[in-house]
Fold:
Amino acid sequence: MIDRSPVRCPWCGDDALYVRYHDEEWGRPATDDRTLFEFLTLESAQAGLAWITILRKREGYREAFCGFDHEAVARMTPADEERLRLDGRIVRNPLKIHAAVVNARLFGDIVAECGSFYNYIMGFLPQGKRIINDVPDAENIPASSAVSDAISKDMKRRGFKFFGTTICYAFLQATGFIDDHINSCHCKSRQS
Structure:
């Protein structure tokens, strides 16, 4: 019998949640600030953890962090942060919770400066275009790049927390600024 299932990047395995995330989100271009703030928050929370852990807590994050409205999160108080430390629906690391609030404020500053966070990120990409990498297999998926180095350096200068080059690169992959699907994957963007 011929296997007619689509070829996927092997990192998603066969977990239904991971497969759905791979097929429907990872590497697809995101342009709106709410989605970009969502991934900035989730990728920062993921530092040191497995991504599937964060995916399983995603709805808890959505509820805890005001539907990923960066303006609402920026208004959170120390009392809100303390309340979130008791919320088992999210990773309760106080440094990561505080980082989400700090990052929301700084995200808003970038939106005010650049018109959108999308515009800010696009300003770092060569010729202002998304990057579609040649990835023959999963072993060739990079963990960082000159672009993620530059963005994370600028964001660190601005005061962002939990957003080093590796987390930044994962953010760029997740939000489609970089397409690192393996070449044979059914989700791979094709250059024209």
